[in-house]
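User: Please run a holo structure prediction.
Assistant: Happy to. Please share the sequence and the ligand.
User: Here you go; the ligand is 3-methyl-2-oxobutanoic acid.
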Amino acid sequence: MPQDQLIIFDTTLRDGEQAPGIALTPDEKLTIARQLARLRVDVIEAGFAAASDGDFYGVSQIAKLVRGPVIASLARCTPDDIDRAHDAVRHAERHRIHVFQSTSPIHMERMLRMTPAEVMQSIIESVRRARRYTDDVEFSPQDATRSDPDFMIATCKAAVREGATTINIPDTVGFATPQDYVELLRRVYDEVLEGRDDVIVSTHCHNDLGLAVANSLTAIHAGARQIEGAINGIGERAGNTSTEEVIMAVTTRQDHFGVEVGANTAEIVPTSRLVSRLTGYPIQFNKAVVGRNAFAHESGIHQHGVLRDRETYEIMDPESVGATSQIVLGKHSGRAGFADALAKLDIVLEDDQFNEAFLAFKEMADRKVEINEQELRAIIRHGHRRVPHTIRMVSMRVHGGTDVEPTATVVVTRGEGTETEEFTGTGGGMVDATFAALKKASGLEPHLLDYRVVPVTSGADAMAEVNVVIQLNGMSRSGRAISTDVVEGSGRAFVEALNGVLNAGAGVPV
Ligand code: KIV
Ligand code: ZN
């Protein structure tokens, strides 16, 4: 098979962001997009511009500020959606409009309430309209794998006639097996492209049966030259194809797939960690390529083998995905040692940010004997989180055990004021009691949508990252904190989420 280029289309910021409980701010999206550019993916699907003003703003910021990858926006088959998508991506160096329409009987009849002829017409008009704006137009027949193949292929042919340059075949509900999918893609390749080399066939697989990566990779043999995925495999329901798994599969098994990717694999782990932190979705310990245990060897035989020769049990070099670390700091590390560690990690801080991060590091080093790279990165990230404080938690005390009702007392100040107020709450456990006390302090009664504690490292003194998502009056806000004390970290994360609601002015005090 000739060496071919495989286009990596990353949809972390669109399909990935559709995962339940994820609500990224435009700034967070921009941070992820910049990291995806460092990873050198080829296309970033930055969002669905017509979905809301916030989405529009997020996509246009990325189009204006991120250089390198093509920036795409999703659009339904309506003139408004296409105009809006173009308006958002037009600032990019290179941009794409990604038009989709459902072609399966169940979607057409039950969801769209459109006949196949109407669906066909909407596709023709929409691809034509998108082509007036750009020569880079992608078309996706949604739910392709449950569509009548003849009709689905006819829509793709019509899209190509109207000028679509990428035909993406979504396994929207993760229904296909690798064999089904490769057969379908082969038909698309033969019947839609008919030998043309200026149109790309693409995959978009969901993971409902755990087959997303396998289906996407198998399609390479049927001529697919673009794979769509999301970092850490996040997305609707069970998620999408994992971008990082695809990159490493085709890199490690180039002999088998015969395609090349332009990605900078050393940015994989930093990208994965960033996405996990900002979305609040933890990475499964044994997740391929990026999991905490992906390069950990537990049994004596394995450890012995790896010490003699890494390749006895490792098919990828951890360094090649950015997964190694030699940095360990402790309470005796001074400013110079701290600065040196930051330099090794390519972290550049302004003077005041440096001072703040150093203080946070010293505080943590008083509680923890050794601080490694992951912990150091966590300290720096949290040193920078600057959610304006409507309320500030000055201190907290908790009381719990086997035979007492868990009780928490928090001391808070408001705005820039220094006057302290004290509130007490009780609950099912010490975290619950802390949240109860903080709700009283804020005067809000939010619903707790999500609460997660993710250890940054292991051990009894492990530092943990706490993620909290609350909802009030239809608005969701998240809060995060790190601490070696889970209850204290939970309290601080909850305060940050409460401040998010209070600052947005959506909180109606109860
Ligand atoms: O899963 C899907 O069908 C999609 C399309 C919008 C491409 O995400
Ligand atoms: Zn999808």
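The first strand starts at residue 4 and ends at 5.
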